[in-house]
Amino acid sequence: METHSVKFRAIFLVLLIGIGIVILFALHRKDRGPDFSPPASLETGLPAPDFSLPGLDGKTVRLSDFRGKVVLINIWATWCPPCVEEMPSMERLYRELTGKAFEILAVSVDGDGLKAVGPFMRKQRLTFPVLLDPDGFTKDTYGTTGIPESFIVDRNGILIQKIIGARRWSDPAIVDYFRKIIDNPESKG
Fold first, then answer.
1. What are phi and psi of 71, to 5 degrees?
2. Omega within 30 of 0 (cis) for the link into 148
3. Quick one: 94 and 14 in the same domain?
4. Structural domain that includes position 24
5. Residues 163, 84: one domain?
6. Domain check: are 151 and 65 in the same one?
């Protein structure tokens, strides 16, 4: 019986050592692990990836439909406190630049889609266009690592800026930035 116990302990010790070696090997492998970098094709100065998503009214909207306008793409969700916090200032920016060559496309990644976003937009009295992306296609395509993340696309469809985190979009400096790139199509901000 004692021999059986010694054999069991030896096997258990060998297993523990083996698991320890595997863990150490995994920790020292630098070429493994998750890659949080954005897709290689998503670089400023290159065309922004096109996408096609339904709006709140069910009509399909494509980013490429807005060629000739500066577009602020904002990827967000109703359950994200920083996203919710920046929405009123985004509405003020939208109203400030209405009638200019400017558009906001707020892409909601809410899993409940219209069921969550429609009431939120009405309650907050937000009027800028919202697109529904419950499967997170745009989030994946644009390589976001969290929300909110925003992307500024120039009149020619070129990505000129990536912004991580919430902003006070109605800040005079930000409004001036957009006016500059709207009024001067050659400007990259």
1. -120, 130
2. yes
3. no
4. 1-33
5. yes
6. yes
